[in-house]
């Protein structure tokens, strides 16, 4: 006889004892909700409740769950091959996706390196920068500069360029590489200019350390997990100019912002700049698989290839996985095949109107919206477990952190669901 189907309590009990979730304790594990299925913008729990997903599964499921076009892309590719090594071999999904990425990303990004995840793409970008300068005979240029409140991933290289306070560097101080940190820009997105003191701080750091700096890494326009801060394109444009002046590469981490989230296909477009290296992830597959890419200019690629090693020193086992490439191409085609800018603008309008009433709440420090991102910033940190449960009771899946209640919904969410989402956020904010 086959084993009986486990009950919800069976799953929860095993999960509690054996499965480690993101940023959780094994001695005091967080409460978990068992998901039975997901479709469109809804997550269906095994007790029958449905939750409107305001997180797009950490900002990746831009077309909603269980999309027939994305399902078909994976199913069709699976019939041919699920995987084949990329060493010495290539395949059409990798070529077609590479052609598409070169076409749609900021001009000048001509070379594509496929990676396993966003954090790994950042690791690759850092390697690109360091190897480039090594090949130029400047082996001392090994330091990275990062913005305060920045977040770039949880692997060691990515963590080393994440905010040293938010990233808990002191726990790993004897293992992490030591890099340089500068200001988090104080100019908001609507500003037509940067703050002079912010730019002066960056320039002073470059003046003192430029001979040792390989690259500056930043999240363009939106600092995500470091606080959901939106800053002016003028600051980004000025940083590009400073990097050029001081002979420093610019890495733009668009893992969270890429593929339309901010109202432009890529956030760098707000400032009209091209970075030397660009990282992509999250929404690249429409949230179907872990996959990422790092793109660079011909200058960087040739510099690395003509250096001592002659190759970029990285090669993941599942690099250019055919199913991931196929579903990524289908996701991009699905996005570009509709008026995605109008969709993002519509979500923006709904978020602005729906969250507006939170501005007068005494508990609220700020309410801000950019593209398909809506944020209520509270004056005090939330109790995440308690607040999460309150939101579930309202029928929505929103995962708060720090002082923030925020959403990055799928682009296909309709007016009624957006209204339910924002109403729940305001109600829960009022109860903090």
TrEMBL record:
Cofactor: pyridoxal 5'-phosphate
Keyword field contains Transferase: yes
Superkingdom field: Bacteria
Record keyword S-adenosyl-L-methionine present: yes
SUPFAM superfamilies in the record: PLP-dependent transferases (SSF53383)
Sequence positions that bind substrate: 58, 151, 282, 315, 399
Gene Ontology MF terms: adenosylmethionine-8-amino-7-oxononanoate transaminase activity; pyridoxal phosphate binding
UniProt: pyridoxal 5'-phosphate binding residues: 118-119, 253, 316-317
PANTHER family for this protein: ADENOSYLMETHIONINE-8-AMINO-7-OXONONANOATE AMINOTRANSFERASE
Alphabetical UniProt keywords: Aminotransferase, Biotin biosynthesis, Cytoplasm, Pyridoxal phosphate, S-adenosyl-L-methionine, Transferase
Family: Belongs to the class-III pyridoxal-phosphate-dependent aminotransferase family. BioA subfamily.
Protein name: Adenosylmethionine-8-amino-7-oxononanoate aminotransferase
Lineage start: Bacteria, Pseudomonadati, Pseudomonadota, Gammaproteobacteria, Cellvibrionales
Pfam family, one: Aminotran_3
Complexes and interactors: Homodimer.
EC number(s) per entry: 2.6.1.62
Role, per record: Catalyzes the transfer of the alpha-amino group from S-adenosyl-L-methionine (SAM) to 7-keto-8-aminopelargonic acid (KAPA) to form 7,8-diaminopelargonic acid (DAPA). It is the only aminotransferase known to utilize SAM as an amino donor.
Annotated organism of origin: BD1-7 clade bacterium
Pathway listed: Cofactor biosynthesis; biotin biosynthesis; 7,8-diaminononanoate from 8-amino-7-oxononanoate (SAM route): step 1/1
Modified residues (N6-(pyridoxal phosphate)lysine): 282
This protein's encoding gene: bioA
């Amino acid at each position: 006889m086959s084993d009986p189907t486990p009950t919800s309590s069976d799953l929860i009990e095993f999960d509690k004892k054996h499965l480690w979730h993101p940023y959780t304790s094994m001695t005091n594990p967080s409460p978990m909700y068992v998901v039975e299925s997901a479709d469109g913008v809804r997550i269906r729990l095994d007790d029958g409740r449905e939750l409107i997903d305001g997180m797009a599964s950490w900002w990746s499921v831009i077309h909603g769950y269980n999309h027939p076009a994305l399902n078909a892309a994976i199913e069709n590719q699976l019939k041919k091959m699920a995987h084949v090594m990329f060493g010495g071999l290539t395949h059409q999904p990798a070529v077609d996706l590479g052609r598409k990425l070169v076409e749609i990303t900021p001009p000048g990004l001509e070379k594509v390196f496929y990676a396993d995840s966003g954090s790994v793409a950042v690791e690759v970008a850092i390697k690109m920068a360091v190897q480039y300068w090594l090949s130029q005979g400047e082996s001392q240029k090994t330091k990275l500069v990062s913005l305060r409140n920045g977040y770039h991933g949880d692997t060691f290289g990515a963590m080393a360029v994440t905010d040293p306070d938010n990233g808990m560097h002191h726990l790993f101080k004897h293992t992490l590489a030591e890099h340089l940190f500068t200001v988090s820009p104080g100019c908001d997105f609507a500003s037509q200019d940067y703050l002079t003191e912010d730019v002066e701080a960056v320039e002073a750091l470059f003046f003192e350390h430029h001979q040792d700096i390989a690259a500056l890494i930043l999240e363009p326009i939106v600092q995500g997990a470091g606080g959901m801060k939106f800053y002016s394109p003028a600051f980004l444009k000025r940083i590009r100019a400073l990097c050029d002046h001081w002979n420093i590469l610019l890495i733009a981490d668009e893992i969270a912002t890429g593929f339309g989230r901010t109202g432009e296909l890529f956030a760098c477009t707000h400032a009209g700049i091209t970075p030397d290296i660009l990282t992509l992830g999250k929404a690249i597959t429409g949230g179907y698989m872990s996959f990422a890419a790092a793109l660079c200019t011909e200058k960087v690629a040739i510099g690395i290839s003509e250096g001592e090693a002659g190759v970029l020193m990285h090669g993941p086992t599942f690099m250019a996985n055919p199913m991931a490439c196929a579903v990524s191409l289908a996701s991009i085609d699905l996005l570009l095949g509709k008026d995605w800018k109008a969709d993002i603008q519509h979500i923006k309008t709904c978020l602005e109107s729906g969250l507006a009433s939170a501005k007068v709440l005494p508990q609220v420090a700020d309410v801000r919206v950019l593209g398909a991102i809506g944020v209520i910033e509270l004056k005090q940190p939330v109790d995440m477990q308690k607040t999460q449960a309150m939101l579930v009771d309202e029928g929505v899946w929103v995962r708060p952190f720090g002082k923030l209640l925020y959403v990055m919904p799928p682009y296909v969410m309709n007016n009624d669901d957006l209204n339910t989402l924002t109403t729940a956020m305001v109600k829960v904010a009022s109860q903090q």
